[in-house]
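Milestone 3.1: sequence recovery, worked example.
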């Protein structure tokens, strides 16, 4: 439960709408794009994360033993790098 609270707080700080698992990947999704916008200009955050149109995709199978660390690190990086752009 404490881990979920930490994730929620970091996700809010990063401006994310949700953190979910889809197709064996962690998905860090931003709020819906404004009408007429096709994608966000998401900066690269680390070698594990793949930026998409409106979200980062993290294959946690690449680091199954420490996916929680991967998630928390990625949330911090999203917060830092997306606030800079």
């Amino acid at each position: 439960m404490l881990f979920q609270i930490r994730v929620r707080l970091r996700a809010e700080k990063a401006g994310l709408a949700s953190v979910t698992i889809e197709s064996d990947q962690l998905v860090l999704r931003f709020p819906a794009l404004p009408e007429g916008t096709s994608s966000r200009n998401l900066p690269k955050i680390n070698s594990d994360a793949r930026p998409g149109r409106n979200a980062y995709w993290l294959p946690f199978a690449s680091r199954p033993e420490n996916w929680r660390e991967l998630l928390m690190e990625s949330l911090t990086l999203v917060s830092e790098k997306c606030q800079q752009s």
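The mean pLDDT is 88. The beta strands are 18-22, 25-29, 50-51, 55-58.
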